[in-house]
Amino acid sequence: MTNSGPNKKVRLSNNPEKANRKPSAWSGLKSSAVWLLATGWFTLSGFAATHPLEPLSTNELRSAIDVLLKENRISTNSFIPIVVLQEPPKEEVLAWRPGMGIPRQAFVVTYDLPNHRTHEAIVDLDQGRVTSWRHQPGVEPLQTMGELEASGRILQTNAVWIAALQRRGITNLALVDSTAIPGALIPFRGAGNVRLLRAIPFRRQFNRLLWEPIEGLSAVVDLTHQKVLEVADHDIIPRSTSSMDFFDPAVRGRREALKPLVTMQPQGANFVVRDHEVVWDRWRFRYSMHPREGLVLHQVGWEEAPGKVRSILYRASLSDLLAPYADTDPAWSWRAFFDESDFGLGHYASTLVRGVTTVAHATLLSEPMPDPKGNGGVLEAADLVDIYERDAGSLWAHFDSESRASAEIRARWGKPRARKRTSRSANTRCSSPPARSRPRNTLRIEQSNPGSLRSNPKRDFQSMRPRTASAACRSERFSAHCKTATSARRPGDSAGCPRLAKRSSKTLSA
Predict the structure, then answer these.
(1) Which end of the chain is more exposed for a tag (fewer CB within 10 A), N or C?
(2) Could you give the C-alpha distances from 108 to 281, 338, 428, in angstroms and in order?
(3) pLDDT tens digit string along 16-31?
(4) Cα–Cα distance between 118 and 78 in angstroms, integer?
């Protein structure tokens, strides 16, 4: 080492070629990669997040499972119902600014079926290791489709179940759906510490389920030990003569379709989607798809001024959805499902179709999701989220009977629409000023304040009036009353006008 300047050292080499060699592009690339990993801009999964709440990418979902397999936390037979982003603490998210590092972690729920054990894991995707592994005693995760299929295979080989179906004239098991669903709300005798499912048979065709239950028959399945605990074979209930197939035209009806209703946006949509951030007018929010919760909204806010966003809510999702059937029949009394906790709203979200399940002008977005079978795979769920604008009618309107002027605001954020009508008299004319001259921010701010309505309805109505427009109409209307055939006085001049003379100067100046 030798000094070539103040506080500067140069390493000498015996090889003149190495001493004179310039740094290679590869060495610079390695240095850049180390810096990206250190600052959190790049993870071992190969994904660069743009926000702390950005959902896990396809590579990140796979990396989380690979880390658990590498550390022998799970096996290929484990069920993995949930793999999502481990959201950072709220304080860290709110303090984050573009350019700061973004730590990436995955929250994973695993289920060991043979041992009936549920674990929750946190995987550090930056370092490629498990940072938390906790057993949750007495907790069962949502049911995966892999378990659903396994329960059907168990019942199709049970002699008592097959005999009960034959009593009802069913010999072809391919025409019966025997899959079981969660039913542990009502305990079953001698079935403690097991994965308990209950089965209701449904008729099916070769290509789809008919959703026609075979009444009077049910079963209890111990999925942990892969056996049937009970087959409840009650009275044989005759099959309905009416079709229960949703795809049967007799069920859906033969009503003629109405003429098409088309929404046109010749200049395109007013919203912009950047990664998982949606910007619409002054609204700002993020979204994600959760296997259990379904659609989740994050950081909903309103931009009051450039760069100043007022927070409306931090996180919004559906807590759960309980469907109690409340029937005292033994085959129905246990049916009370938590659709979110038992099945997962995100797992059962279906593909959207423009003009059928959503409007024709919707923007459809795809999301990578954990395989609902719970096998650790990743599916690219196409067209799972739709975003679109709609005109919800008139939000606010005002009509002045004397001036024949009217103003209206549609239920879409933006400028009000003013209409001018023909006056009744040549001497009385008043119209709202053009929309472009009306203070745009006044009406927009009033409409963007859903949480601050006052208790007095009269004050609320007054606060929503376009004050600038009404003031202009008032002064012009007053001047119209004061006009004569020989002279026209200034707005607010009460000389010679008996109507305005009755008003105080303070009122006129206002």
Answers:
(1) N
(2) 36, 21, 73
(3) 444 444 444 444 434 4
(4) 10
For CA atoms 146, 151, 152, 153, give the dihedral sign. positive
Decide: 322 and 342 in contact? Cβ < 8 Å: no
Pairing of strands 294-305, 283-290: antiparallel
The structure tokens listed for 240 are 């309905």
Name 201's Cβ contacts closer than 8 Å, sequence gap at least 6: 165, 176, 177, 178, 213, 214, 217, 218
Contact (CB, 8 A) for 403 and 431 = yes
> What is the token pair recorded at 251?
């069920």
Token duo for residue 391: 């005109």
β-pairing verdict for 322-324 and 8-10:
unpaired
Contact between 475 and 482 (Cβ < 8 Å) = no
Its pTM stands at 0.71
Average pLDDT value for residue range 473-494: 40
**Average pLDDT estimate for 152-170:** 95
132 forms bridges with which residues in the sheet?
122
- Asked whether residue 62 carries a pLDDT value surpassing 90, the answer given is yes
DSSP per residue, 181-236:
EE-TTS--TT--SS-EEEE--EEE-SSSEEEEE-TTEEEEEETTTTEEEEEEE-PP
Dihedral of alpha carbons 325, 327, 332, 335, sign: positive
